[in-house]
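Whether sequence alone determines local backbone shape is best considered at the level of individual chains. For completeness, the protein is quoted in full, as a sequence line and a line of structure tokens:
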Amino acid sequence: MPRLAVFALLVCVLSVAAAVVAFVEGSFLGIIWVLLAGLSSNMAWYYIRRERARKAARQAG
């Protein structure tokens, strides 16, 4: 797995944890953490798909 994908997944997990803590404490700033989790999960998915496409292109050509 690409290093950037691992970092993005780590950010995603940490931001979900921060969102849970924020909502448990009654803070609506957890919405920002949820948005960050969505962004980082999309980034991780992008990097994983890009690496798969590169491997497929190497094998094909």
